[in-house]
Amino acid sequence: MEDSFIGYIEKSIHEHWDLDALTDYKGATLQYKDVARKIEKLHIIFQACGVKKGDKIAICGRNSSHWAVTFLATLTYGAVAVPILHEFKADNVHHIVNHSEARLLFVGDMVWENLNEAAMPLLDGIFLMTDFTILISRSEGVTYARDHLNELFGKKYPRNFRREHVSYVKEDPEHLALINYTSGTAGYSKGVMIPYRSLWSNLAFAFEVLPLKAGDNVVSILPMAHMYGMAFEFLYEFACGCHVYYLTRMPSPKIIFQAFSEVRPAIVISVPLIIEKIIKNYVLPKLETPTMRLLMKVPIVNDKIKLALREKVIQAFGGNFHAVIIGGAALNGEIERFLKMIDFPYTVGYGMTECGPIICYEDWRRFELGSCGKAAPRMEVRILSPDPERIPGEIICRGPNVMIGYYKNQQATDEVLEPSGWLHTGDLGLMDRAGNVIIKGRSKNMLLGASGQNIYPEEIEDKLNNMTYVSESIIVEQNGRLVALIYPDFENAFAHGLTKEDIERVMEENRVALNAELPAYSQISKVKIYPEEFEKTPKKSIKRFLYQEAKG
Known about the structure:
Blueprint: H1 5-15, E1 20-24, E2 29-31, H2 32-48, E3 56-60, H3 65-77, E4 80-84, H4 90-99, E5 102-107, H5 109-112, E6 125-128, E7 134-137, H6 140-147, H7 149-156, E8 176-181, E9 191-195, H8 196-209, E10 217-220, H9 227-240, E11 243-246, H10 253-263, E12 268-270, H11 272-282, H12 290-295, H13 299-316, E13 324-326, H14 333-341, E14 346-348, E15 350-351, E16 358-361, E17 374-375, E18 380-384, E19 393-398, E20 405-406, H15 410-416, E21 423-431, E22 437-442, E23 447-448, E24 454-455, H16 457-465, E25 470-478, E26 481-488, H17 490-495, H18 500-517, E27 524-529
Parallel strand pairs: 1-11, 3-4, 3-5, 5-6, 10-11, 12-13, 13-14, 26-27
Antiparallel strand pairs: 1-2, 6-7, 8-9, 9-20, 15-16, 16-17, 18-19, 19-21, 21-22, 23-24, 25-26
């Protein structure tokens, strides 16, 4: 086991020099040596820009091989990466770039169309990630270095660039590696400071529990700007010598299904919704026939059917993987029972951005139905409850995976991180005698988007509550879609001569206007009008749990 994160990266480039590393699906492939060369060229640019160790470099775009290269170049230079979810609205991206005091910004072409460089005055330069061309340069050094890059590279390596040239400075485990913003909106965004020890510990964990080897294929579905996708669909695979395929576009179940059958990944990392959709669309319809239902009740045939079903589900995910690892939210109970019944190799882990991300995990062979595994290696997990087996309490954890704190926000840090190192997750759970953790509720109200994006209902409600004739609102999730429950300001509306039908029309107009301000993954699919105020706690916050199952 390597004793440093950068050590893992350097060793992998040395050992896998001629292997395929990163492919933009249906596009170009970079080998490990190409990645190393591109890293070196970016280092030349960083140097010309006067980037120093500890300076911030922001990255915002869809997953791609150049996204990965930019991230690795930033860390191996000693700078701090600031990955930004490409679906954030322009003003959110501006806010994060400014708040993090980033010196450079690397953007995807789709993102750049909506940004305004004047709103990001601290940047020295903005680069397009597709080919690393300069979009905006505020320094002569930046322009010169980019224009003369091949010449500068040739001067530095006159006799070809070889693997022995790859030698990066090893990090201090406590130093800041990246800042990951949990949300884009100014009032809600917390920049989670992930130190190198967390990256190293999550990487070491993956080497301990996941059986990948050099040359294995993996499809990257989750956004790399999220710690879950970054740690387990990119950093571990790169350190292993695997070949990562980036979908580079919206990963719909149809595209993912197609990519799985072509790439045949050695491991599948996903969020519940993608797994559920693939099973519901491609597997369960075959179970719904009367003959099938009858056969499922016959004990001996039953086993044969289960085997056939297991094979069908395995083929749906490419037929070549060790396990399907699910995280981010609870798996649908019905789907989970079905997977357990056919002995499908899946497991559900538990983590959060603040732990970079892993907290709990268990191998699929020992995984307990309904749980999210046991404390991961090097992590301690406790339940703050007088009887953790029966009475849910807050889940707290401690260990090298835990963040340093929130960037420029000591108050928020103090609220969740004790001086003794215990992190309060804000999630509620139980723990059985064997140490399996069962999540009973997210006391932080966070919802999960289809590709693993964090959705904070309070952010959307803030916007909605300021709209015409809205008194108060709650955003809930129903069947994978977001629904707005609204208690309108009836008194005001009726005073202006509106009828009930008029109010319904206005609320629908509000929904359309609100969606225009929201990223695609947090769009409101419909509005349900409530005739009376929502029930509140003594602190006057809405009792959300009463409304999660609201029908309509």
